[in-house]
Every structure is written in C-alpha cells, then in structure tokens.
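Notes from hallway chat w/ T.B., transcribed later so I don't forget. T.B. wanted the structure written out for a chain they're using in a teaching module, and asked if we could keep both sequence and structure tokens in one place. Agreed to drop them here.
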Amino acid sequence: MTSAPSEATRPRARWRRHVAGLPISITLACAIGALVLLTSATVLILQLQANRENTFQLVKEISVLVIETMEGGIRAHLTPALDQAEFIGQQIERREVTLADRESLFTLLTGALSAAPQISALGIWDLELQRTLVARSSANVIVRESQSDRDDPNVVEATRQLADHSAPYWGRLLRNDQGLTFINLRRALRRDGELIGFLLSAIAAPELSKLVSETGDEFGATGFVLYGRDRVLAHPNLIGTDNRTWDDQVAAPIDAAGDLILSSLWEAEPFPHLNLVGSEDVEIVRISFGDQDYVAIYKTLTEFGEVPWTFGLWFPLDDVDQVLQRLQGSAIAGIGLVLLSILAALLLGHFIAKPIRAAALGTARIGDLELQQVEPLSSSLFRELNEQARAFNAMLISLRAFETYVPKGLVQRLIEQGEDQGLPYEERELTVLFTDVVGFTALSEQSTASEVAAFLNEHFALLAGCVRSQAGTIDKFIGDALMAFWGAPDHQADTATRACRAALCMARAIAEDNEKRQAAGRAPIGLRVGIHTGPVVVGNIGAPGRINYTIVGDTVNIGQRLEDLGKSLGDGGAVTILVSDATARQLDDDFTLERAGDFSVKGRSEPVVVYRLKASS
C-alpha cells in the first residue's frame, strides 16, 4: 500500500540579488580623469590659439577660461552640500531614518559629513526646533549636538522661509558666536507631503578664501568673491583674519580686505577692445592705479542666496605674457596630471571598493543563510569602512552562534514570509517521526561522557541528513531521541511519503554506520522509528523570550508511542520502523508494509493498527 509522489522538493527563494552598476574604481578613475582632462585640454587649446592672436585676444580667451575655472571650483566646493542634503532628505522621507531616532540621525549625519570634507556642519531641526547636529571642531574632529533652538532667530527665520521653497535653497550667510561665517544650504523635510522639519548644511566661508587664493595663484592673479557690492566674502588677504572685527557683519567690508585694486572695481571702465561673444555675463574692465594698469575679470551669480555673489580676479596688464607661459606649462602638466589622477583614482577606488564588494558578497550569502561560506571582513585604512568591518564581523559571529540552535529551513521560511511576528500557531494535518537508539542506557554506562557526546553528534548528523533530504523540520533532540515532522512551516501534500522515505534513509545510514563500527571493533547499534499522521497545533509556542516553533497534540503522543512499541515488535533487524494506519493509507505500492496488528497505546481509547515499514523500490 503506498503513495509515490514526486521526489522533487520546492526550492526556497534565494535572496542574492545581482545588481547591475559601474565599479567604484572605474567610476572614480573616469570622473577624476575626465575632469582633469577637460581642464587640461581647455588650457592646451587656449595656448595654441593664443600663439595666433594679439594680446587683447589672448586676454579675452584667458578671461573666459579663468572665470569658468573659478566658477567650476566654487560650484565643486559647494555642490557636496546639495548632494548630501538630497541624500539625507531621501533617507528621512523614505522612512529609512526617523527624526525621533537621534542615534540613527547622528549616524546618518556623521557618514554624510565624513564623505564631504568641504562641509563644516550638518543639522536637522524638527518642527519643535529640536536640533540634531554634527560638526567639525577646530581639530577636525566630528562632534555631536542635540538641543532646542526655539530662541534662535536664525532658526526661526529659516523655518518661516520653508513654505516658500519646494526645493533646496541657499540661505543668507550665518555667523556663529566665534565670529565665523558660514555659507548654508537649507532643505525642507517632508513625509507624505507634510512638512516635518528641515536640514541645514554649512560650509565655512574662510575655506572659500583658500579656494580663490589657489585659483588666483594658478593664473598669477588675485582672486576674490564679493557679497553684494560692498562686502568681501573671499579673498587671499582674509585667510587667518579675525572676523570679529567686522562689526557683527557676516562678510568683511571691501576696504578691510586691504586690496586697493579691488576697492576700485566699481569705478573701473570696460575694456573697449574686448568683445566676449557668448559670454555677456562675464565683465572685463581696466583699472588704472598710479602708473600701472590692471585687468579685472568678474561674473555675478544670483543662485547662492538673496544677496548676489560677484567672483573674479585681477592681474597686471603687462603680466599677460607671463600668464601665457604659465598656461603653456599648465597644459603640459595637465596631461601628466590626467595620467597620475587616473592612476590615483584607480588605486583609491580599489581600496574603497574591495571591502565594499566583500561586504556585499558576504551580505548576499548571509541572506541565503550560507553562513559558513562567509569570510570575515578585513580591516581598512578608512575609518568608516573599518567600523563597517567590525560591525559585520560581530554580526557574523552572532549569526553563526544563532544558526547552531535554530533550524535553517525555519529561518528561510521566516525570511520568505517577511513578517515581523513570525509564524502564528494553527491547526494542520502533519506527519510526525520519532527515533530512539536501542540500548542507549547500556551504551552510556560503558562509555565516558565525551564518548557519549561524540556518538550522539555523529548519530544525529546521520539522521538529520535524512530528514533534510526530504525537506522535513527537525523539532528537537531529546537525549538519544529525535523528533521531526513534515507539513510545516511549508505546506506539503505528501507528508507521509516524505517521512517514510526519511525513515528508510535512516535505516540505510544505520546499516552503513554499523559496518564501520564493526570494522573498528565497536558494537553495532539499533534504532526504533515511529511514524504517525494526524492533526496537530503547529506554530510559535512558549513564553516571552523563549519561544519554540513546534507541534503539540495527540498525533505527537501517538508517534512517540509507536516508536516505543518497537521494543516488542522488532523483527530482529537493526532498525524497526512502525507506521500507523493513518500514515499507511497515504502511501502507494512503492512501499512494503507488513501488518503487525492492532495495539492499544497510552492515551488512546481505540486501538491503533500498526504496520512495519520494510523497504521501498
């Protein structure tokens, strides 16, 4: 009597995701290389054209290049604030982080600040004006702050402006108690269309002075950024100055920069010989001071706040030839810089990408519960990646310890279900299997504790392999006994067939193991197996803090009684397998059953028809 459904088991869903994308190392190399190549190529082209043009034409071309280079530097300096604001805003709006979770906010802000060295501080305010802020100290150490700013007029003013801006915007310059001026980007934070707070990204204005100073030095000129018409936001002479001498203004008066040429900018006359076609927003003027003439090139931007910025540089008119020579040298050096930058970017990308790839691979394998194949992450030169490695390795150790006590199949089922509450208990028809070692008590008395433990580990490894081969769930090990069942957590239509195949697999495994034991001079062992099919309650059962996924009910008791009945119904073989009539009715002719009789079992008023399972084709 029998049933022979397909042996194939339903494969579990895999968690590994193959995500298409560009490698970090190649992306860094291409981005940095392209940027340097573009700048160097532009300089080289200008140098070739300058050989055929007169002095004024050369000044025109250089002027455009200088302004574009300077504008590109300013934008590159400020763009990270916009990028990080968008990243943080999306994390919050997608509910990856909530404003109430201060530690998660600090972690998010710290990571963003570490990735953008231009940014001095990042802060988030909720509608109660509670601040969560990370900032760089004077020693370049990231510090954290959390406090209420209800009485800060700058914060109150920023909150009022949020309604008028649907996108990130640059606010008015801010000045702290130490007299330091900050350029700041503000972004409203919304969730489901409702305003929940705002983010502010601050960049120290003195860093802009260093940027324009470096740009000016590159072209043998003096760079500047004006805030409005009468205030200086950035200038080489302002590097290292004490801002507290500016009468509480956010930018220095134009006279405080100590630049007489810049102070005469608005009285200068346009250059009559220059016509900047296609660059109407770039101005070139001649400044006469004493017996020397100067050229000033500038452009006005209105996108960085309510007050316009005017940036540019000036240089002596008779230095044009020197500028040309520097540009020629820059063109040649730029080609070499491209190659060096690409090489440096490849090396940097390799160091950054290697631990990220290892973490991604390890995480994918953890998602597939292949914990033994996961390699611990190595330490990194980068602080954030090093912290990631330590956290990943600690998680891996914990998961490996967890795997020892929780069935892998059950965890996969919980992952596939995707519910936090786990598997609730319910009533189902299952097939339960019990095993017990014949004469285990005598065997234990003749062996040491370590020998008994080693025997049980080897024995259960054989039996567990047979259960897993038929997609069964191991409920528990009780002394020398094993309890397993089929039909949960996954629904299985052929639970009786699977259980009986597992039992026959155990018989073969015990026979092979006994041959090895006898060859080693050890006594063979016997095994009793009881199998019964019926209704049970299955699910998470237990007390808070200690819950087991198990089954309970009369079916469990009968399965255990059948295993115990094997003491008197053995046929002399090493393994005795007894199945109930409820199980036998679900088997087909592939299984050989021998009726052993009707027997009363404890806890059951009616006798149970019992069969010996002999073999399968």
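Follow-up for T.B.: Residues 421-616 form a domain with the Alpha-Beta Plaits fold (CATH 3.30.70.1230). Might be a good example for the class.
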